[in-house]
Amino acid sequence: MPRVLVCYYSKTGNTKKMAQLIARAAEESGVEVELMRAKDVKGKDFAKFDGIIIGSPTYFGVMAAEVKDLLDRSIACYGKLMGRAGGAFTSSGNLAGGNETTIMSILQALLIHGMVVQGDHQGSHYGPVAVGEPDKRAEEECLRYGERFAELAKKLMA
Ligand SMILES: Cc1cc2nc3c(=O)[nH]c(=O)nc-3n(C[C@H](O)[C@H](O)[C@H](O)COP(=O)(O)O)c2cc1C
């Protein structure tokens, strides 16, 4: 069974709620999930997972420093993550407050690791986005994303 890490930084709880929904849906879709705060993840831990999903609040249109710190520490796994599944999500204060650029800033690092990122032709194309606390739309996006990510991780592992 693939192992998936869902890790996040969240100051006021919005990104954390998204992480919990994504983790639950992925688990229900048949992967083993570990839900962790970014600061508790060691850089070398990434290599233990078949899929990694990272969530951050939108801070000035990019990821928060704690998430960047984790990605910088993930250099410990450089060359070991090729072909594994990667994904990202965010909560921003405003509708067009830089949420897509935040997701892309995380995905950029995962792509540099050689990870495989799946987009979506519906809804949030790059990964789930909530504006503030996740509303019904954002909750559904997170659940759908967790399910889809689990399927991707299973396919890549097969
Ligand atoms: C330092 C800082 C920078 C922020 N920058 C942005 C921003 O550029 N665009 C935006 O829409 N919201 C911005 N916000 C708002 C947060 O993204 C938003 O409140 C988010 O829901 C917080 O997520 P959390 O509850 O997981 O901490 C910022 C908040 C802080 C504290």
How would you explain this protein's 3D organization?
With 158 residues, this protein is an alpha/beta fold. It has one domain: Flavodoxin domain (Rossmann fold), CATH 3.40.50.360. The protein is 38% helix and 20% strand. It has helices spanning 14-28, 65-73, 99-112, 136-157; strands at 3-8, 32-37, 51-57, 85-92, 116-117, 129-131. Strands 1, 2, 3, 4, 5 and 6 form a 6-stranded parallel beta sheet that branches. Strand 1 (3-8), helix 1 and strand 2 form a beta-alpha-beta unit. Helix 1 crosses helix 4. The longest helix has 22 residues, at 136-157. The N and C termini lie close together (10 Å). The model has no long low-confidence stretch (mean pLDDT 97). Flavin mononucleotide binds at residues 10-16, 57-61, 91-94, 97-98, 132.
Please provide a brief summary of the model:
It is built from 4 helices and 6 strands, in the order βαββαβαββα.
Outline type: globular
CATH superfamily: Flavodoxin domain
Q: Give the termini distance in whole angstroms.
A: 10 Å
- Stretches where pLDDT falls below 50 for ≥5 residues? none
CATH architecture: 3-Layer(aba) Sandwich
Mean pLDDT: 97
CATH class: Alpha Beta
Structural class, please? alpha/beta
The CATH topology is given as Rossmann fold
Counting structural domains, the number is 1
- Taking Cα atoms only, what radius of gyration do you get, to the nearest Å? 14 Å
Number of helices: 4
What string, H for helix and E for strand, traces the elements in order? Answer: EHEEHEHEEH
